[in-house]
Amino acid sequence: MKHLISIADLSSEELWHILNRARQLKDEWRSGGNRPILKGKVMGMIFQKPSLRTRISFDVAMLQLGGQALYISPDEIRLGERESVPDVARVLSRYVDVIMARVFSHQHIVDLATYSRVPVINGLSDYSHPCQGIADMFTIWEKLGYLKGVKLTYVGDANNVAVSLLFAATKLGMDFTIAHPPGYGLPAEVLRRAEEFARGSGSRITVTHDPVAAVRGAQVVYTDVWTSMGQEAEKAEREAVFPPYQVNIALLSHARPDAIVMHCLPAHRGQEITDEVADSSHSALFDQAENRLHAQKGILAFLMVDQVA
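Now predict its structure.
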């Protein structure tokens, strides 16, 4: 049985399998031919953090593939408080066929997977956001037609999204550059693992504090919020540090003329990204958002159908 805990746990072949599955299922959706490959299956969705895209994309993905999803709100089980994470996993996995959890602590995802009888999907943790990373790779592949050798530049806080993008890029042979303020970089363990993946795929990793140098020649420019959920106490400090890392027209002018701009949303417009960029012809923000649906289908098919076949 497979879980999706981190993109680092997938082989490049498995990652490509999910991307190809997403494309196949998106093509079927476009032609109005959703096949009920998950007929009779039920997903349990545990939420500690709110989400528009994660909840709706997984809910609709299950419905379109013939299954159904159950939303479990933060107050219903109070994961790790009212009931231990192992006990939640032991009970819930006797009711449902797959569990998706969107949590604060990555250890909760690890514990759910350890004690679950069914596949567990990391819908977001403080460590990584693999579903977003997979949807982003799918979007870049759609836009450019290839992934190997693509220069992806991430500008801003080296958060869970940046971690998943780095792992995906180095699994797929893309060049990954990150520009962040001092003190807001990637964990050493993440860089060490990514460097191992890069040696196998031919990727190049560049870490800098200079956003202009980072975006030079970039085909994809990516950013995210300066203050993530759970970091509210740092909001004022971060807003004083991050303005030089705003993705605006001036910064984008140093990337390739046909560069695409990405953001996992929700965006704090006027902070990490300007309206002028977010609403420009360079923007792939809403194609990314749509592709969460198709990427979730690819993930579900990989874990619940293809692994069983």
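The two ends are 12 Å apart (CA to CA).
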